[in-house]
């Protein structure tokens, strides 16, 4: 077989392996998926009236304005939550001895990581669809977005999932156990909480605004918000693209270097 055929075959095998693991042990994925869903319901039904009045300029108790504002951020937070499972899965593989067995076999070495990455991206997309369905069920609408804008929004979500997944793989590789991997990946959930996901950046204290603004989630959220809701995107589109590509490249080289040098 050619090198390309071998790589595709082995990567497909590793992808099937990871998808089977996710199907047989769904508790981790479900637990991580519940976090953005619970936050969505909490902020809409508990804080929705107050938040909507603030964002909508003091209008009545209609929550629709805040639902529209909230959903793009929670879709990206869903991706961050899902990739924590990737870090845990990679760490388990590294500590349970299966990687040592793979190293003795005539397989394409990067296929082990590629299987994790592709499987995680697919799970992220499914999780985003599920959270989006809940959002639609409670009142989220995006009637002004064109077909091209929907396609661009989907592309941004996939690219963001790819970038965070490679970072999560690296976190799993440097972690001595699954618990450490979960803790190391916690910034993927924490960063959306200090972004523009829940409130506008300009409503935050002045000293805190740079923290919220100069991180990967805020420009991605504002870009997704602009694509789905027609708000101003400005320079956020290029920033989101740069963050995604930069994190993907960094995560890829970090993960592959660590995987190839790890003696276990």
List keywords for this structure.
264 residues; mainly alpha; 12 helices; 0% strand
Tell me the layout of helices and strands.
Blueprint (H helix, E strand, L loop, with lengths): L2 H22 L2 H19 L2 H8 L8 H33 L1 H6 L7 H27 L9 H27 L4 H7 L2 H7 L15 H5 L3 H13 L6 H26 L3
Helix pairs in contact: 1-6, 2-4, 2-6, 3-4, 4-6, 4-7, 4-8, 4-11, 6-7, 7-11, 7-12, 11-12
Structure description:
With 264 residues, the protein is mostly helical. 76% of the residues lie in helices and 0% in strands. The protein is built from twelve helices and no strands. Helix 4 (64-96) packs across helix 11. The longest helix is centred in the first third of the chain and has 33 residues, at 64-96. The two termini are 28 Å apart. The mean pLDDT is 85.
How would you summarize this macromolecular structure in one to three sentences?
With 264 residues, the protein is mainly α. It has twelve helices and no strands.
């Amino acid at each position: 077989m050619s090198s390309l055929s071998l790589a595709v075959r082995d990567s497909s095998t590793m992808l099937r392996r990871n998808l089977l693991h996710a199907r047989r042990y769904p508790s981790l994925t479900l637990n991580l998926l519940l976090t953005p869903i619970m936050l969505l319901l909490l902020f809409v039904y508990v804080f929705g009236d107050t938040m909507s009045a603030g964002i909508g300029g003091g209008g009545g108790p209609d929550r629709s304005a805040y639902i529209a504002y909230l959903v793009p951020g929670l879709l990206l937070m869903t991706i961050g939550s899902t990739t924590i499972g990737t870090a845990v899965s990679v760490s388990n593989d590294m500590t349970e001895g299966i990687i040592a067995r793979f190293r003795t076999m005539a397989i394409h070495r990067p296929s082990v990581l590629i299987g994790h990455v592709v499987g995680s991206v697919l799970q992220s997309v499914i999780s985003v669809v599920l959270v989006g369905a809940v959002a639609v069920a409670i009142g989220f609408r995006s009637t002004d977005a064109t077909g091209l804008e929907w396609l661009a929004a989907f592309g941004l979500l996939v690219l963001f999932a790819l970038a965070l997944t490679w970072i999560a793989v690296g976190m799993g590789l440097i972690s001595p156990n699954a618990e450490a991997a979960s803790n190391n990946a916690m910034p993927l959930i924490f960063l959306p909480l200090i972004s523009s996901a829940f409130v506008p950046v300009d409503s935050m204290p002045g000293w805190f605004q740079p923290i919220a603004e100069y991180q990967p989630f805020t420009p991605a959220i504002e870009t997704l918000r602009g694509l789905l809701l027609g708000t101003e995107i400005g320079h956020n589109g290029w920033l989101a693209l740069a963050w995604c590509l930069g994190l993907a490249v960094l995560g890829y080289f970090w993960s592959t270097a660590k995987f190839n040098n790890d003696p276990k």
